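re: that chain from earlier
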Amino acid sequence: MKQNESSMTSLVSAFSRAYHSKFDTPKIFDDYVSRNLISQEEFSTISNSMINGISFFNSEIGQKFKEQPKELLKWITQVQLSPTPLARAAYCERVVLNEVNLGVEQYVILGAGLDTFSFRYPELTNTLIVYEIDHPTTQAFKN
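^ sequence. v structure.
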């Protein structure tokens, strides 16, 4: 991790959520705020890295879509990169929101990275204390 920069893991995670929010249907988890946490340059760089690294994910798909970079990126994000993190985030947030209705007052996010829960639920500011735990540089990036 570089000094005064967010971690690559948190950037790729934000990219995954931003891509899903912008391009996928149906939406499993609409993290519309994540688009604001990464620059267009970072989004393009990560996109190009994914496309150029297709052989890591699946060389057969790389050959099939070698002239269709948007289809390659779609396949990588929808099949390899996003399904588990999106499903986990959607499930966890549904549980948290249900627990808030039952009286829970604290939510701890370990390895928070560029999580956007607090940005997407400002109405919970006076109801729920959210603790985000991650590398200080990554956390400072969001402030």
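Residues 8-142 form a domain with the Rossmann fold fold (CATH 3.40.50.150).
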